[in-house]
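haha ok so turns out i had the wrong file open the whole time. this is the CORRECT one, sorry everyone. sequence first:
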Amino acid sequence: MSLNEKYGKTALIAGASEGIGAAFARYLAKEGMNLVIVARRVEPMQALAKEIEKKYKVQVQTLSCDLSKPDAAQTLVKALNHVEIDVLVYNAGLSYIGAFEENDPAQHLQIAYTNVVTPMGLVQSFGSQMVARKRGALVLMGSLAGMQGSGNLSVYGATKAFNIILGEGLWYEWKDKGVDVIACVAGATSSPNFINTKPAKAGLIEPKVQTPEEVVQECFQSLGKSPRIITGSANRLASFFMHRILPRKLAIKVMGDTTRKMYGI
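then structure:
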């Protein structure tokens, strides 16, 4: 059964101009779903929409929105009040790499709005509608940085932990109400944002960087079966070692040391 047969005909993807978000858009279009794609930058988003419409013969609506604004969720809900959203993917994420006290407090707030407040608002609106219809799916993107304290990624890691826990909680609340929910936890992925940070190799046992397509494929393979998926077998092995073998204090140290080495902090 295709996703549009199981969940409905329209998917909303927030953070969809490139990388994992674009991979989600292509995957869902291939499944026959019409799309609403949301991003801040207009040109790459419109190019993606044109590519998808030509290749998959589905309808793609683009919405330019700064997801770090306090009213971003309300703006999107208002703009889509005539559209029935059957699948919601919240992929957008804003991060700062470096010492907490050296970052502009305004950017800390932007990260919190992008990674916590906006997805919570969209989930509240569109997820509640799915529950009322007794059909739908929700994907919240997490990160391995959100699995423990992550030095020099402290705010980003904390906000991604929120998405993981929210996804797991809603999986329980909605699993018997016709709505599938999953928290998709990715590690290093070859998206433009990751590549542009120019990370150095952290060590010989560093997990292999996944492609966006691999992350998306694993996510949908687990949707409806598990409350959370850590994508990539190497990432799952590393996570098992970090959280089942190492003491919490040491796991936090390993994560912080790795980030410092990757970014020369």
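The chain has one domain: 3-263.
again sry for the mixup
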